[in-house]
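Incident review: delayed structure delivery

Summary: a single-chain prediction request sat in the queue longer than the usual turnaround. Root cause was a stuck worker, restarted by the on-call engineer. No data loss occurred. The affected request and its eventual output are reproduced below so the record is complete for anyone auditing the incident later.

Affected input:
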Amino acid sequence: MMQKLDLKQKTIVVFYMLYFGDMVSITPFLEVLRREAKGSRIILVIDQRFAESVQYNPNIDELVPVDRRAGGLSASWKLGRQLRDRHPDILFVLHGTTRTFLMGLAMHPKWWTGEAGTRLDHFFMDQELLVERKDCHAAEKYLRVLQDIGVEDLSHHGMQTFTGPAWETAAEAFFHKQGIRRGEKLAGFSVGSSTKEKNWPAENYGEVADYFAEKGYIPVFFGVTNELPLIEAAVGHMKWKKKAVIAAGKLSMGEFMAAASWCDVGFTNDSGPMYVFDSRGVPTIAMFGPSNARLHHPIGQRSCALSSSDLPLTQDHVRHTIRDKTYVPIERIPVEEVIRAGEWALGLREDKRYAEHYCIISS
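Output delivered after worker restart:
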């Protein structure tokens, strides 16, 4: 039987050390937690590489960045002992690992709940919960953790990212250097992802960029430095390549979040930038192949995932889907369909297929 927790006037620690997009997906959880935990101090322990994704989130009181690539089990224990000095009342583990087990053990919270990271966790946890469920959207599964401890009002404003003045200034300076001012029409593109099988062909992005460039939208290609070859392939395929703006490698994570909000529409693969565009209120069209659009689609009002594969909700990890080739290759998504979806995102046409935020499409 699940126990209802009193979240008010507590010190609450949340362990979540996953990746960029994941950090954005927990923002509805943080919003609801803040609303329910009146008078409480909320501490988020995260991977330091992605600290900027939540640095200005008003629903967090303290960030504790962790260098997951340095130090071993002893470093995890040491950090847990440091967190013990905060006198934690409640610990939420949203992604359990050996590291989170050791940190929780050393921290010794008054109440420990969430996902187990080892077979030993349940001997020490007060309430083990199912977090990694496969019957709902990624953002929803974290909200259900709160539901499981008695929170009834799970209403929220969707995935959100927040920026600071320095990031906004840097983004504006970047665009001004390109001769772009606020109010001009921009189409944002992010053509990379964590694995090549998740990448819609770069040349196809070039065709989409061309189409919207002819409609008066300046194509802006975001990304990290190692994605420049993909971006060069996309731009090289364009007729209007002189209109393209390359932002990849020129903005920090926080500056990218600020710059993304300048766009009228965003086109991405299943990747961290997809979550950023969507969380900044930018209508987002995201291409999916081996990953599950039902579980990870953007959720904004005019955002939609286009998927080449009709994968079950119970899909195994995307790495296994790629290994076993149990999906339709992402390049089967036609350029014409992405253009139509982009027009829908911009309010230039209506199409009921996109209203559910994901649409199974293949040529």
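Verification: Residues 17 and 46 are 4 Å apart (CA to CA).
Action items: add queue-age alerting; document worker restart procedure.
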